[in-house]
Amino acid sequence: MKALVRAESWPIRGGFRIARGARAAADLVLLELHDGGSVGRGECVPYARYGESIESVSAEIEAACRNLRGSDARAGLAAMPAGAARNALDCALWDLEAKQAAIPVWQLAGLSSPPGPVHSMRTISVDSAEKMKSAASALSSARVIKVKVDGGPDMDRIAAVHEAAPDAELVIDANEAWSAEQLRAWLPELPKLGVVLIEQPLAAGNDSALEGLQRTVPICADESFHDRGSFSGIAGRYDMVNIKLDKTGGLSEAMHCSREAKHLGLQRMLGCMVSTSLAIEPALLLASQAQYIDLDGPLLLERDREGALHDREAGLLRPSSAIWGAA
Known about the structure:
Blueprint: E1 2-18, E2 21-35, E3 38-44, H1 54-65, H2 84-101, H3 105-108, E4 118-119, E5 122-124, H4 129-138, E6 144-148, H5 154-164, E7 169-173, H6 180-186, E8 195-199, E9 219-221, H7 231-234, E10 240-243, H8 245-248, H9 251-263, E11 267-270, H10 277-283, E12 292-293, E13 316-317
Parallel strand pairs: 5-6, 6-7, 7-8, 8-9, 9-10, 10-11, 11-12
Antiparallel strand pairs: 1-2, 2-3, 4-13
């Protein structure tokens, strides 16, 4: 089996800013696995928040590829830590196996039907209230809008977005930037502004204040949740988990996490990094199991991979077997 690993950079339309900083491009790693005339592809987005870089993830993939052997290669990835490198490998192996078996990935995964079109929530980056209001006006027909905040004048920002898109449900994503005091003060006001969910308000590892907190809207774990090993740490604190393949380490673990979350009575959000459609196609297999879909990464880019079928204006994601997962 031959592995080709390369770094790519895809410009983001208008840039992207969250509590941790701003980016002008999605920097990612593409993996191609060549075996017997078939090619499996996977994509991952290294995230500095988790100690990852393009260089470290590329090296981890290349090292792991030297030991890939036979039909049980995907099962052998369990020894790798969850994260971006394992995600690229796992998804590339799913894709390769589908091509070699001449059946689509959704059948390999045991699903009863192929993934269909799904609407994703749309994202507004952190900015001034005025600029966020303008961005919301352009998304006023969206069903759900994710509002990025950073612990600054966030209630003004949320109010501005709600004014511009009064019919949209708002998901507030603080990316660990709020204090416990801010959360307690703002929680009672949020439902009046169309907010239906808060994502990771407090820092991971410092979120014990969520225990016993009287909440007016559910709270979702993102940075506090990675893979199956995270469930014990979020018990009694969160109502929902954000399942991202770059955190779980691929589709295989994401499927397990989705089943376990359901068993534990936790709702599920299906999330992503800013990426191309190659990273989104595997996640779409889980879309029917999630209460919230946050897979608009490709819709934030200036352009997407050839063969993508998504509708940017409508926020509609259409699976494309030309990109990943075909027989």
